[in-house]
Amino acid sequence: MASKVVFLGAAGDHVVFGKQIRGSGGFVVQADGIQMHFDPGPGTLVRNREFQINPRENVAIFVSHAHLNHCNDVNALIAATTANCLDHNCVLVAPKSVVAGYEGEHSILTEFHKNGLERIIQVEKGNRVGINKVEVVVLPTVHSDKDGVGYKLITSRFTLVYSGDTEYFPEMIDLYKGAEIIVLNVQEPFGKHEPGHLSADDAVKIFKELKPKLGVVTHFGAKMIMADPMMVAREIQTRVGNVQVMAAKDGLMIDPMTILIALKRDFSL
Predict the structure, then answer these.
(1) Is residue 268 part of a domain?
(2) Has residue 149 been placed in a domain?
């Protein structure tokens, strides 16, 4: 299995995912011979089919927090991955708000689908998890779901950070160090700020400080859609300099190895 990252949607706020202006299926990472699905929001299975992702190949499903645009279809994805819970061939990695419930509500996970998993790994910031050969560091976030997390994937070929939903906080810089690819949930365009979320101004600060080989912005709100995510990404790149910045779109496929080799990184394939 070749390494790749596939975005099944770039929807952010309730307007964009509610109207499906952008898809909300999260994204998939294939690395070190395994497939991992992140944040299966509404329409995940439809987007899997549209972009030729086979959920039966999932070894792990990751959820960053308990808001519906990130976890609504987690039960459906578990069912599709495990042949309706006949095969216990997948683990779920998620924070307490997803596993045990959010703000006094019952967990979004049904008992049937919980029992269909190989195991559930409930995580919090600072935890480290091994998924086959991939090491996962659980990152903190500042968001309305206080249990929400981001993830840092350390594979044999590249390191990828996914911010999850968060507002900017200074410790991000140290936590994200070493990542060649940084995926930020940038809901707001330049000059707009929403508590618990990143803006394009925040993306400039993060990319300028860390200088990843590739920065990807996703999770767009209505104001970002109006500003045109592609144009915002270009402006972020202009302000940062020496960092390739892309705006995710539904179906965007990134080949990490091609990107890093093109940037004269020496990998033995």
Answers:
(1) no
(2) yes
DSSP state of 225: H
| End-to-end Cα separation, the chain, in angstroms | 12
pLDDT tens-place string over residues 213-228: 999 999 999 999 999 9
Burial (CB < 10 A; 0-12, 13-18, 19+), residue 122, is middle
pLDDT tens string 78-100: 999 999 999 999 999 999 999 99
Q: What is the pLDDT of residues 104-133, one digit of tens each?
A: 778 999 999 999 999 999 999 999 999 999
Q: How far apart, in whole angstroms, are the C-alpha atoms of residue 184 and residue 220?
A: 10
Q: SS3 of 258, please?
A: helix
Q: Which domain holds residue 48?
A: 4-262
Distance, CA of 96 to CA of 149 (rounded, Å): 10
**Residue 258 backbone dihedrals phi, psi, to 5 degrees:** -60, -45
Is the pTM for the entire model greater than 0.70? yes
Q: What SS3 state is found at 154? A: strand
Q: Which amino acid does the sequence have at 251?
A: G
Beta strands 134-140 and 149-154: pairing type?
antiparallel
The enclosing domain of 144 has a CATH number of 3.60.15.10
Q: Is 139 strand, coil or helix?
A: strand
Number of domains in the chain: 1
Beta bridge partners of 34: 31
Secondary structure (DSSP) of 159-212 = EEEE--S----TTHHHHHTT-SEEEEEEEE-TT---TTSEEHHHHHHHHHHH--
Distance CA 177, CA 187 (A): 22
Mean pLDDT over 240-259 rounds to: 91
